[in-house]
């Protein structure tokens, strides 16, 4: 499964700063467009060369193999997703508000991302399969990210309870990506925010803090 391989390799790869290499960025942009158009499993380096408008040797000097190109694309898009979610959080927001903000940012990213949108529409099962691949390494990476955010918001919270809650949130998010809901409308940020605040945030608070009394 190409999507599973892409996410797994991204999770295990060190971050790379592409800001100083606009040519690399242009190649990866072309790779993203091509994968969104024909599917990741059908994308070739030659297709990316043609779409980028760059010389063949220019592309191959940076990515001599298709796997190198896929790894780089995976890493960049995963970094973009996490940066988008983190950037959607206001400093000083309550945990409940932060939950709503993170949910809106994550769902908006998936809905507007060309490759993830294609996968969700054409192969919704691939989202779940990708998360479960390779001993669920990618899924655990997501749980780790959520748990760290919850622990920061509730430093006095029980670590095991926080981990369980993060696991629940990750599972819920996967279902929303694979099977977008009718209510709330995934195209309506205000509706997503209200839903996360009224439905998801109380679940998270209960899981972290435990039942009252």
TrEMBL record:
Residues 21-81 form the HTH tetR-type domain. PROSITE patterns: HTH_TETR_2. The keyword DNA-binding applies. The keyword Transmembrane helix does not apply. It comes from the Bacteria. Keywords: DNA-binding. Residues 44-63 bind DNA. Pfam families: TetR_N. PANTHER family: HTH-TYPE TRANSCRIPTIONAL REGULATOR RUTR (PTHR30055), HTH-TYPE TRANSCRIPTIONAL REPRESSOR RV3405C (PTHR30055:SF153). This is TetR/AcrR family transcriptional regulator.
């Amino acid at each position: 499964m190409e999507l599973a391989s892409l996410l797994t390799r991204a999770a295990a790869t060190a971050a790379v700063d592409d800001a100083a290499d606009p040519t690399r960025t242009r190649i990866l942009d072309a790779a993203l467009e091509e994968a969104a158009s024909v599917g990741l499993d059908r994308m070739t380096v030659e297709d990316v060369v043609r779409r980028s408008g760059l010389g063949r040797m220019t592309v191959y000097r940076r990515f001599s193999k298709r796997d190198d190109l896929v790894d780089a694309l995976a890493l960049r898009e995963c970094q973009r997703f996490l940066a988008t979610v983190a950037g959607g959080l206001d400093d000083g927001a309550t945990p409940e508000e932060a939950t709503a903000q993170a949910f809106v940012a994550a769902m908006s990213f998936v809905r507007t991302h060309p490759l993830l949108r294609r996968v969700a529409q054409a192969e919704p099962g691939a989202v779940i399969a990708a998360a479960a691949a390779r001993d669920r390494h990618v899924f655990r990476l997501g749980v780790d990210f959520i748990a760290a955010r919850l622990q920061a918001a509730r430093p006095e919270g029980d670590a095991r309870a926080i981990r369980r809650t993060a696991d629940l949130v990750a599972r819920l998010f996967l279902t929303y990506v694979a099977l977008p809901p009718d209510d709330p409308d995934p195209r309506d940020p205000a509706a997503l925010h209200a839903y996360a605040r009224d439905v998801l945030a109380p679940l998270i608070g209960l899981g972290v803090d435990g039942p009252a009394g």
